[in-house]
Structure formats: structure tokens, C-alpha cells
């Protein structure tokens, strides 16, 4: 199984470079297996979409949902859970990376954070 790096995934989602976006699209179409999206790639992608591309949290949530609902990509259970959690809480100001940290920490709860928005979620407390 192959993987995509952040820059390839962002080009595919944003389509700000038509040639690179098309190259990734062709790669996805040719492949018989899904491409693995790691935790780091998804965290970086959400950050790039928010900070550099100025996407809204709603747009990022929709993109993340698309990545989980297509057979062209696969991710580990922690990532899939983080996407679901983000779908529920992005409107509350909780970032995708926060959801990823919380789900990755699920065996080591509670999670302590000074992030007041994140503290609204179950199993998150101030230190």
C-alpha cells in the first residue's frame, strides 16, 4: 500500500496547481489499492487548509469526511475517530489536530490541556 504526503494531498484537495492536482488524480485513478493517510499527514493537511488556504472549519470538515468516505484512501482507526469527532465539534472551535490528539490518547485518559475549547469535550480537563 502506498501513501500520500501532505503536499500531494493538499494539491489534490485545493487544486491550486492544476498540473499537480491532475497528477495526483491520475495516480489515484490508476491505483488498485487505497492510499494510506497517516496521522501526521492529516494533521498537517488540516493546518495547511486552515492557515495557508484560509479554509473554514466547515470546509475542512467536509474534506476530511470525503477522505473517509471514498475507497481511494485509508487511515488508521485513530484518524477515522478523529474525523468523526471533528465532524461533531468543529463548529465549537475545536481543531482537527486537537481531535486527533484526544483520540490518539484514548488509552491514557484524561487528557490535560489549557485549550478551553478542547476542555469542553469528554475526558479533557485543565491541569
Kindly list the characteristics that best describe this protein:
two-stranded parallel sheet; globular; mainly alpha; 127 residues
Number of helices: 6
Q: Going across the biggest sheet, name each strand in turn.
A: 1-2
Main beta-sheet strand count, sense and barrel state: 2 strands, parallel
Inertia-based shape: globular
**What's the SSE pattern?**
HHEHHEHHEE
Give the amount of beta strand, in percent. Answer: 5-15%
Number of strands: 4
Task: Give the averaged pLDDT, no decimals.
Answer: 95
Rg over alpha carbons: 15 Å
Describe this structure in words.
The chain has 127 residues and is mainly alpha-helical. It has a domain at 39-125. It contains 6 helices and 4 strands. The chain has helices at 6-14, 18-30, 39-51, 57-69, 77-89, 96-104, and strands at 35-36, 73-74, 111-112, 124-125. It starts with 5 loop residues before the first helix and ends with a strand. The mean pLDDT is 95.
Overview in brief:
The protein is mainly alpha-helical and 127 residues long. It contains six helices and four strands, in the order ααβααβααββ.
Summarize the helices and strands and which ones pair or pack.
Blueprint: H1 6-14, H2 18-30, E1 35-36, H3 39-51, H4 57-69, E2 73-74, H5 77-89, H6 96-104, E3 111-112, E4 124-125
Parallel strand pairs: 1-2, 3-4
Helix pairs in contact: 1-2, 1-3, 4-5, 5-6
